[in-house]
Structures are given as C-alpha cells and as structure tokens.
Amino acid sequence: MILIIQVQYADGKTYWAQPSNLRKVVKPAKRIITAETTRQYREACLRYVNPDDICLEVGCHEGVTTAMVQRRCKTIVGVDLSDVTIQIARQKFPQVRFVVVSGDNVEVLKGLSPTGEYDKIMLDIGGIAELPAVMHLVGLYYRTWKNSTLIIKSVFFSRLLEDTEMYKPQEASVSKAAINAAAEREKRREQESSVEYE
Ligand SMILES: C[S@@+](CC[C@H](N)C(=O)[O-])C[C@H]1O[C@@H](n2cnc3c(N)ncnc32)[C@H](O)[C@@H]1O
C-alpha cells in the first residue's frame, strides 16, 4: 500500500504527495555559501533551492546544474559567455532557458528575472578561476541583489574564507579590566586613609 498525504503550500494550493518525495526547506545561515567541487556545488544548489525561488546560474556551461535546479524551483535562467556551450545546453535541455551574456552585465541579468530580483544566484565560472574574477562577480551580486543567497563554486574563494577570522573588538574585556583596576585603586586609597587616622 502506498501512503499519500495532502500538503498545503504557503499560497493555499494543496497537493497530494508521497512522504518519501517531500523535502525539508532548508534556510542557509549566511548569505554566501561556497563549494570547492562540482559535486559539492550541485549538492548545495539542490539543498537550498525552494519551490518559490527565482534562480540564476552564471557560468552554466552545458546546463547540467541549471537543469537539475529547474526541477525544484519556480524559475531559473542559465547564462554563459560562450555561445557554443549555450547552444549545446539548449539542445540538451530544451525546457530550460539559457542566455549568452557575461556574468558582469548586471543590467541584462536583472532583465532576465520576472521581478528583477533573484532568490538564489549560483556562480561557477570554473572551480579554479582566478580569485579577483570570482570576487568581482560576488561583490557585484552582493551589492545588487541584497536579498539573494549566493552559492559560489571556487576553490580559491573557499580557501580565502577558511583562512579568514573576523576580528572581535576587545573593548568589553578592556573596560572590565579597567573597572577592576579602578576598584583596586579605590580599595587601596581607603586602606591608606584609614591608616592615617589610626
Ligand atoms: C566549469 S564551467 C561551469 C559548469 C556548470 N556550472 C555545471 O555545473 O555544469 C565554467 C563556465 O563558466 C563560463 N564563464 C567563465 N567566465 C564567465 C563570465 N564572466 N560570465 C559568464 N560565464 C563565464 C565558461 O564559459 C564556462 O562555460
């Protein structure tokens, strides 16, 4: 016997589904997720994409990741600066939208979204693409689409973040030390003055 349950989406629509086909919606803790390998990158894309998401993949190549994500989101467009790979992607996945455009052409990218916004932006211009090229695009997307989650495949960007520590200001402990020292001075002064009167 197959168990089927009724599921209600946030927009009120209801669907019948097998529980084994249901996926938990996972909200990433940070705005940027990095991956070093294609396998990790695809896993991250599929893990964080939601049925209501408007998605963009920059550096879609022949469209494999774009097509995988397309099945799990509302809409996606894959872009690449190579028209040869875009032609192949269109042949392989005719149901998916692919466009030839460079990843730094933000105005064109905005126009490819029905709202001008993206929930998820996936960036893969090559796992060992030069760090400045990756960071340039990450910076552009981070500033342009403030509500987007970015999923980045880059060995160098991942390692840079791994080697990064956010400096935590020390004021709190300094002022605590200062308070202790002041209390100590006050105590000593009191002791000295009580000695004078004895
Ligand atoms: C490793 S492949 C991407 C593989 C694809 N993401 C996948 O999962 O199957 C890198 C692609 O990035 C494209 N690319 C490199 N620089 C780019 C840029 N500035 N804008 C758009 N695409 C770029 C290349 O043409 C190439 O097709």
From TrEMBL:
Residues 56-107 form the Methyltransferase domain. Pfam families: Methyltransf_25 (PF13649). This is Methyltransferase domain-containing protein. It comes from the Eukaryota. Residues 183-192 have a biased composition (Basic and acidic residues). SUPFAM superfamilies: S-adenosyl-L-methionine-dependent methyltransferases. Residues 179-198 are annotated as: Disordered. InterPro entries: Methyltransf_25 (IPR041698), SAM-dependent_MTases_sf (IPR029063).
